[in-house]
Design a protein that fits this description.
Layout: E1 4-5, H1 9-23, E2 24-30, E3 34-39, E4 46-52, E5 58-64, H2 66-75, H3 80-89, H4 91-104, E6 108-115, E7 123-130, H5 138-151, E8 156-163, E9 168-180, E10 187-196, E11 204-212, E12 217-227, H6 234-242, H7 245-266, H8 269-282, H9 294-305, H10 309-322, H11 335-344, H12 351-365, H13 369-376
């Protein structure tokens, strides 16, 4: 068995993961041993973090990327917007504030870097996280889930994959586990999405995705497992910090085993058929006033999902595209239509927002009856 590889996506993903893994280095440091300085660049000011040995001699100069910079400033009590404004307009004020806080409120932190060990000035600071951060990195995730998919008879194909400064995402669909959803012609396929953040921006995750094949909209179902990098209690975190490297390796090995089992379960035909049944029920949950109430219905849904006006507009655009797809042409406006309208918004989203839109689609499918009633009873739109 194998995973069908569109446009070399899988090779590109694995190559990037291998390259990043070779350059990764983590440092545990007290913040009072760090010095922050902001330097001018033609493309805008950059903030550097200098690791100091005893006596104040620098041992490494790291340039903070956007993720690490935002983590430093938010831990110092600044919101992201203020921190970035100080960096560009008042760098001396920023440096003084951060260095003073690091000295007066010293704590232990893990600095996650892409490191050039041969150079004092080589390296990127990519995250500043707790010293209790559990390192289960991207190679660990892929080594756990890819063999499970390869050994399956579901004929998996990688749809897309991204590695951003915040997260890794890899989305797969089955070529063998398919079926009709809400109507004749609405062809759907089983899918799985895996994710991870090495930089403190999310858990290790595996989730079921159901793909609408006409548009390749993906909807994340409620079948999702998350494993946090940080423990939920201080005592557990302290215990993690006490563990030897071998104990940590065994802990990660247990997590890998769990992920393999979860991936196999979420990727099964039984899970897929269960979601198809939900879609068929959702097709009968119609908006009373039909397309004449499309805009008010989307507004009501946006209020429930806490969408901005721009995001609700994206959903309305997605609805207009959905009603032209096979399985939806000439059909009543329904909850199933709204699911696809929401997931369609993922096509115009940045990489870190795609999974959010796909998860929102799953929430629409699972809306409680009283919330769906607010959408279904939307009035006819007023003429402009």
């Amino acid at each position: 068995m194998s995973i069908e590889n569109q446009n070399h996506t899988l090779e590109s993903l694995l190559e990037t993961v291998r390259d990043q893994s070779a350059r990764k280095a983590d440092y545990i440091a007290q913040t009072d041993s760090l010095q922050v300085r902001t330097v001018e660049r033609e493309t805008g000011n950059e903030t550097q973090v200098i690791l100091e040995a005893e006596g104040g001699e620098p041992t490494k100069v790291l340039t903070a990327n956007g993720v690490a910079f935002d983590q430093m400033t938010t831990k110092a009590g600044l919101d992201v917007r203020t921190g970035r404004r100080l960096q560009q307009s008042y760098p001396d004020v920023l440096d003084h504030a951060l260095n003073r806080i690091h000295q007066q409120e010293s704590r232990s932190a893990m600095l996650r870097t892409f490191d050039d060990s041969l150079s004092l000035n080589g390296g990127t600071l990519r995250a500043v996280v707790s010293d209790k951060f559990k390192t289960f990195d991207n190679p660990d995730l892929l080594e756990a889930v890819l063999p499970t998919l390869i050994e399956s008879d579901a004929e998996w194909q990688i749809v897309n994959a991204q590695i951003t400064d915040r997260r890794l995402y890899a989305r797969f669909k089955s070529l063998a586990i398919t079926g009709e959803g809400s109507a004749v012609g609405d062809l759907m396929a089983q899918g799985v999405v895996v994710g991870n953040s090495e930089t403190g921006h999310g858990s290790v995750s595996v989730a079921q995705v159901v793909w609408t094949l006409a548009c390749l909209n993906g909807m994340q179902t409620a079948n999702k497992n998350r494993t946090a990098h940080l423990t939920s209690s201080r005592s557990d975190g302290d215990t993690w910090a006490m563990l030897t490297d071998e104990s940590k390796r065994l802990d990660n090995s247990a997590l890998s085993s769990k992920l393999r089992d979860i991936t196999a379960a979420y990727a099964s035909r039984e899970m897929f058929e269960s979601v198809l049944a939900q879609f068929r029920v959702a097709a009968a949950d119609v908006v009373t006033n039909g397309m004449a109430a499309a805009q008010p219905a989307v507004a009501a849904l946006g209020s429930i999902l806490k969408l901005s006006k721009a995001e609700s507009s994206s959903v309305l655009d997605g609805l207009m595209r959905t009603i032209q797809q096979p399985g939806y042409v000439g059909q009543p406006l329904s909850r199933a239509t709204m699911v696809n309208a929401v997931t369609a918004a993922a096509h115009g989203a940045d990489a870190d927002s795609v999974s959010d839109w796909q998860s929102l689609g799953g929430k629409v499918l699972d809306l409680p009856a009283n919330q769906w009633a607010a959408v279904a009873s939307a009035p006819v739109a007023m003429a402009a």
